[in-house]
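Let us practice reading a record.
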Amino acid sequence: MAYEVMWTRLLGLLVGPTTYSFTIVLVSFITGLALGSIIFGFFADRVKNVLLLLLATQIATALTALLVSQLLGDSQLFFAKLILTFQKDFVLLNFLKALALFAFLMLPTVLSGATFPLVGKICTHSIANVGKSLGFAYVVNTIGAVAGSFCAGFIILPLLGKENSLSFVIGL
């Protein structure tokens, strides 16, 4: 969730601080998380070492977040040309911005979506305790999501700034 808050702030500089920008990031995140949950939920039941797969997806998430941050930082001219070219067609402009941002954010969000099904598989040791195990994992996930978005928006961003905050979260 910290990524979402930070990317929404950073992308506001590129595509404008509008509700459309926020919506594009939100839709990209929700779609990526859902796809990642579906894909890695499938793999969670088929790999021998789920913990190793979780570790690999966490490292890959951080690396792709770093890559996306670099690409987005270098994409200012692309978005400026896009806005200039389609400034008279509001719907097409927002559709193209959404498509571009969706493409940028998809890989790290799909990898982030791997976390919950893999942790759920790791926490579930028996069918008899599935509800309790997944319920506990969901509580921890919810607390982490709330704490991540709160800390990103009210602590990390004000203290470190936009670029350093993203580097900090990637390092975590």
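A brief commentary: Residues 2-171 form one domain.
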